[in-house]
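Tokenised fold entry reproduced for everyone:
>
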Amino acid sequence: MPQGKPSVVPEDGLTTRQRRTRPLVMVHTGPGKGKSTAAFGTALRAWNQGWAVGVFQFVKSAKWKVGEERALRVLGDSGEGGTVVWHKMGEGWSWIQRPGAEEDHAADAREGWEQIKRDLAAGTYRLYVLDEFTYPIKWGWIDVDDVVATLAGRPGSQHVVITGRDAHPDLLAAADLVTEMTKVKHPMDAGQKGQRGIEW
């Protein structure tokens, strides 16, 4: 796509402006690092345009301090750019072992999805970041058909970015933009743990 020009112009009856401003569903998937990082970069661009941004984190622990959260909250409260609202879906990581943990996580994920559906219907945000959302779909906690239908029927010009490995094929088919992050090399391959400022 040289110089941002499409290689094909579809015969869809839309003007160039209508096609250019069409709301997108974007999926960042694959085994490589950078899926959430890229989504939060998009959130920064949206904030700069004055858009309301809603972030919904589905898997990371609510207790985990994520650098992007602090930065986007500060920007959202700055009075410049758009607003930013950050939602965390319960305790997070699937390997927390306690009685009923998986059921609690599944219920939290379902309630998070119901909130997103309400926000989409109301047009609450211009950009939604559904971080690690592929996992509750993969684990069967959230129905992919419901997700695809809801995203297809969302009103207005609401953009949605979904991150996580193993994105469902139906989600990929419904998306307008799909990026697969592939790992070529990672410090963890050499035994190095994640580090401050790089992973969080």
Summary: The beta strands are 25-29, 53-57, 84-88, 127-131, 159-163, 177-180. The CA atoms of residues 50 and 80 lie 8 Å apart.
